[in-house]
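Here is the promised in-class demo. Please do not try to memorize the tokens; focus on the logic of going from shape to residues.
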């Protein structure tokens, strides 16, 4: 009985300590708020904030990060001023000054406004990357095979696939509604050097293509294992293009 009583007292004591420490931290958080909410309201806000991870975070720097960023901007400013080619100096110095002024005044929101290409929370979904890679892979096979067809086979493909007098080509993705896919495709080709046959293209189809291209890619996936040391046949290209 004594052992049980000791364990009970120890357990209760530890729980009280943890609760007390948590309460102190909550009270400290409450004190930093403009309206000093009640403890129950503070708990509600903290829980609500923790559960809403999809909301964009407000950008801010602690003192150590401020110092490091300021030092980096000073180094960058000196490097810009020492350039032999002064073409972009005015623009680059303006951006450097913006960062420094944002730190001086705490105007971090201005960085979100002016540096939207950097200050964002977007991360590519691996599923979207896979979709784009599969589509680019499929279209590289289609275009390469078509270029190797005889004139008679090209005419047949155009007529039976519904392409008319046009050569079948990868149109890209819709810049308005499929911008993520477009951006991934452009990055793969222009920055990573993959699928080089598409290099230099616009990639903006100006109409939705992901759904249709994905249907084509599903069919192409069944053909892919047989495409070792050979290209798509006219019949296979027609089968794929009929789904566009």
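The designed amino acids, position by position:
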């Amino acid at each position: 009985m004594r052992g049980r009583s000791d364990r009970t007292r120890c357990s209760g004591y530890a729980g009280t300590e943890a609760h007390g420490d948590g309460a102190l931290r909550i009270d400290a958080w409450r004190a930093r708020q403009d309206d000093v909410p009640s403890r129950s309201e503070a708990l509600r806000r903290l829980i609500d904030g923790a559960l809403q991870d999809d909301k964009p975070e407000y950008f801010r720097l602690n003192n150590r990060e401020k110092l490091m960023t300021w030092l980096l901007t000073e180094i960058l400013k000196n490097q810009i001023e020492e350039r032999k080619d002064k073409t972009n100096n005015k623009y680059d110095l303006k951006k450097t000054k913006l960062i420094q002024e944002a730190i001086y005044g705490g105007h971090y929101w201005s960085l979100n406004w002016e540096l939207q290409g950097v200050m964002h929370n977007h991360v590519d979904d691996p599923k979207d990357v896979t979709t784009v890679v599969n589509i680019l892979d499929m279209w590289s096979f289609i275009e390469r095979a078509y270029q190797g067809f005889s004139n008679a086979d090209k005419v047949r493909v155009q007529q039976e696939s519904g392409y008319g007098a046009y050569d079948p080509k990868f149109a890209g993705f819709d810049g308005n509604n499929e911008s993520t896919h477009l951006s991934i495709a452009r990055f793969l080709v222009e920055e990573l050097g993959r699928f080089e046959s598409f290099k230099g293209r616009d990639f903006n189809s100006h109409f939705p293509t992901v759904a249709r291209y994905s249907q084509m890619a599903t069919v192409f996936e069944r053909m892919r294992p047989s495409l070792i040391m050979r290209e798509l046949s006219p019949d296979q290209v027609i089968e794929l293009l009929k789904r566009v």
